[in-house]
Amino acid sequence: MDTMLRDVANTLSNNLFMFGCPSCVVDELINHNSCQLQRVCSGAFVFTLPKENINIPPIPDGFTVTSLKPEHVDLILQAWIISSVFTDCRQWLTEMIDLFPGVCILDSNGDPATWVLRQEFGTIGMLHVVPKYRRTNLGSVATMLMARKVYEDNYNVYSMCVKDNTASLAFHKRNKFEKVKNFTVGLVKYQFQSLL
Q1: Would 16 be classed as within a structural domain?
Q2: For the residues 144-169, what does the mean pLDDT come to?
Q3: pLDDT band per the 50, 70, 90 thresholds, residue 196
Q4: Tally of helices (H runs) and strands (E runs) in the chain
């Protein structure tokens, strides 16, 4: 496995993420002495959003919908609590925004009030609502707009949520996401930097 991961290092950013493995597989990967793996999370639920459940709430007055742009990366890094786990998070976020433009809702001053990203492995997530705009439904608006965009690109909508994130679990339920039964995923990272 180490050889395979080294071979792809030249075409990827410094971190390779592997997800979807049952916990026992993640444990074995981490315990494998020749691999440099780090657990990012374990036991995350996977949710789908059927097309018929996409219901975009009205956008409150004074807000504008746009796409995430590279100039938003610093703000996203500050808001994402696990950004420090990754050595090249700025590069990765910039690539995600460039390849899969997320949804951003700006306030009346033109500042981001909420955003949601689409990641390279297909999930939508990393939803963030600036604290002063919470409980305004902006998170639901951004998520449903992103879901519609994903379906328009002929993909299915899914997201992941760690088991102990009660706010996110409630959000998924409120927005009619459906939890995939009897299935959780883990996320590990393999860092290439020390190998190159």
Answers
A1: no
A2: 91
A3: very low
A4: 6, 8
